[in-house]
Amino acid sequence: MDSEIKAIVLAAGKGTRMKSSLVKVLHEIFSKPLLAWVLDALNNLPYKTENIVIVGHCAQAVEEYLEKNYQNAKTATQKEQLGTGHAVAQALPLLEGYDGKVIITCGDTPLLTTKTLNEFIQYHDENKSDLTVMTTKFENPFGYGRIIRDKNNQVEKIVEQKDATEEEKLVDEVNTGVYCLEWSKIKQAFSELKNNNAQGEYYLTDIVKWANEKSLKVAGFVAKDSSEIYGINSRQNLEIATKIMKDRYLDELMTQGVTIVDRATTFISPETTIGEDTIIYPNTYINGKNEIAKNCKVGPMTHIRGNCSIAEGCKIGNFVELKNAKIAKKTNVCHLTYVGDANIGEHVNIGAGTIFANYNSITKEKKSSTLGNNVSIGSNTVIVAPCVLGENAFVGAGSVITKDVEKDALAICRNVQKEYKNWVKLKKGEN
Ligand code: UD1
Ligand code: CA
């Protein structure tokens, strides 16, 4: 098995139907661009992977995103969108001299998993194939390229919807747009593609017929879960893909021993891990990368915004928002609380309505606070960062804490209660 693989990701299209000033592949699911889901699926393959992204529309935005987040991704520009085959051809100079495998996929299919990609590559290897196409079966194949197989069930060619005969339109096996190529064998095809078809485009799909004409080995790998190929073209597609992604992950979590009380109102990013016997109550939105340990209770109505780690046995209750928070075991954050940029010890109790004030809107700085083990915070407290509260410190309800608190100390910061005898009676004129 070769240890290196290169991938070409097609992302030059505009995505007109998104009706957006943002290029399609930068639209997000769980705050992560579609393109990033695709690149991560490729990068997680058990190979050294190098990705080449074909950019065109809004190339600058995509390039800037990649520079910031995927330094090892290269880009090739397709100035005019003359078709998928033409798009791949733009990568030719970057692959000069390369003779390994090339995966081709699209930047708008965020549901494709590393597992399926890996099975696909293994199938390609086992069949000693020169070109393998990933296919799937759809009850309604309208719009997709159809997989035409010969008498021996070998993939003969791919015919686009607009070029298909009535008979070919009846075929329910479709092209997913994912390919595995032995580059040295197939690369020549990209110099020979023609655009004499219904759309006047250089079709990538024509490499199948080309390879067969050259008597190269062509194979078709049928992906069982056709939802993995779901592509995003519209906002409707984006909503559906988000639900497919989260439902898939909720199933996985339940299989691992996590209780999900209500699937319909629970959103958990697949980048969050959750331990056994943790219960997630309804209306919970968990975004980004987080670690939630076992035996925790989260929700109902909890928003976890990323970069949080919650240790064993914690309770994160209703109307609680967490961001960049590290919480040690058996700590309770039960009601109406915001914890942002904090490091909280074990067995801490955070009273209802506590706010970690972490942001200075003038300096735009974020600062963090630290609470030792067994700290108790009374209700309606503001902790203005940066603050360090020592072990066992106790904060009286209604306090605004702006200074560090020593261990074992009581800190209280509010007006002394006054009482005016018979004030109500006097007001009402009853002597
Ligand atoms: C393509 C396939 C079709 C397959 C379907 C799966 C071809 C000719 N057809 O059709 O068989 O069933 O995908 O979704 O390949 N792109 C570029 N540059 C271009 C044209 C397209 O980068 O010049 C990119 C698009 O941004 C998109 C991808 O390639 O990410 C697919 O292009 P699209 O036009 O959507 O192809 P389909 O017509 O869907
Ligand atoms: Ca299309």
Describe the model.
The protein is an alpha/beta fold and 431 residues long. It folds into two domains: 4-229, Spore Coat Polysaccharide Biosynthesis Protein SpsA, Chain A, CATH 3.90.550; 256-411, Hexapeptide repeat proteins (UDP N-Acetylglucosamine Acyltransferase, domain 1), CATH 2.160.10. Helix content is 20%, strand content 32%. The protein has ten helices and 33 strands. The strands form six sheets. It has a 17-stranded parallel sheet that branches. The protein is elongated, with a radius of gyration of 28 Å. The mean pLDDT is 97. Uridine-diphosphate-N-acetylglucosamine binds next to strand 1, helix 3 and strand 10.
| Beta-strand percent range | 25-35%
Helicity level, as a percent range?
A: 10-25%
Domain module tally: 2
Q: Which ligands are bound? A: uridine-diphosphate-N-acetylglucosamine, calcium ion
List the keywords:
33 strands, UDP N-Acetylglucosamine Acyltransferase, domain 1, Spore Coat Polysaccharide Biosynthesis Protein SpsA, Chain A, 10 helices, binds uridine-diphosphate-N-acetylglucosamine, single chain, elongated, binds calcium ion, alpha/beta, 431 residues
